[in-house]
Amino acid sequence: MDVFEALYTTRAMRRVSEDPIPDDVLKQMVDAGIRAPSGSNRQGWKFIVVTDPEIKNQLGDSYREAWDFYVKEFYGGTSDMGASNVLDDEKAQQVVRISKSAAWLSENFHKVPAMFVVLSRNDPTGSSIYPAIWSIMLAGRAHGVGTCLTTVLGMFKPEKAFEILSIPNDKGWKIDAVITAGYPLGKWGVAKRNPVDEVTYLNTWGNETNWNLKEPLWNY
Amino acid sequence: MDVFEALYTTRAMRRVSEDPIPDDVLKQMVDAGIRAPSGSNRQGWKFIVVTDPEIKNQLGDSYREAWDFYVKEFYGGTSDMGASNVLDDEKAQQVVRISKSAAWLSENFHKVPAMFVVLSRNDPTGSSIYPAIWSIMLAGRAHGVGTCLTTVLGMFKPEKAFEILSIPNDKGWKIDAVITAGYPLGKWGVAKRNPVDEVTYLNTWGNETNWNLKEPLWNY
Q1: Where are the beta strands (DSSP E) in chain B?
Q2: Is the pTM of this model over 0.90?
Q3: What is the set of domains in chain B, with CATH numbers?
């Protein structure tokens, strides 16, 4: 697969089938991940690949608890993640779509065929772990595997996940993300984004690019 | 370019020539970057593409100051970034290589043809900005452009960079990274990493994969 196809069409794929992912694919996803850069090449990372149904069940319970806590804490428990507060209709629609898809993942977390629990230490900025995480997702895309990056399990009540996965809690490790992975039920496509012109300046803040870039530079 | 070639061979390329990068390439690097996922698709990012020699000179001074502060603070000012404290010979050699290359970048920062100053807000974990940053670097690789991710400018004494780039300091923006970019003086290749077997577990911490993966699953 061309690198630009991967970069432009790897979007959050929360709804996936229960079909298992072959070991060779899981292996290459991690192997591509560890080629990513990390500060001073320290590689302060660990990956736990979870496919065991019992562990997935337990993680699913833990994830739902963290997700419910997150939704309650940040959106007052409304199921639309605050979409009713968004004025712009198109954006509100998108938030509704995301919140439905995220709720689907929360309910079906244990059925996702594989998860990559990603841990790091001594990485205060995230700069040494998220390139590896994104590489795992891009490598998955090349194999037709849909992924979704979620941080809630590590951010809210991670103690249970540590217990379930037998992670030592005295070595400085933290769970940065869980990447869920499976063959998508939906379709691949280029995600809609605010165009480059709106988020890019030349040389100094506020200095418009005049690149006039409203459409993606790559087509699916 | 195949996605795996990009994932396996995009390594920190600090030493680059002064040849300018065409606008079309800079554009596509940002355009690929903004396709990356961000939490709830919030896209809380800004990119300042710096090619102006005067701004680069000023940033170079600021970078050198931050870099010297970093080396002094973390390595007691030793030029080898603590390599003399590393017992394993091979690793010590690598740290020496990295420190030399990093010192080169510090001295030549202002001569690098283009820089992407990447800003975010409301992203405590880095999960919503480093995928975009890594995508910019991968897209550069596809165009033969070498990049290096550096966080020191944002971490140490960022006030000066804010001033140079006229970034408002009351809107919650922070500089996550500067990506330096240019045509490499060195060669592309697969970076050496601790193998998958050493950093991956199956289902629970400590449970070896037995994947016996000592060599990269992709060859250059």
Answers
A1: 45-50, 114-120, 146-150, 174-182, 200-202
A2: yes
A3: 3-189 (3.40.109.10), 194-220 (no CATH)
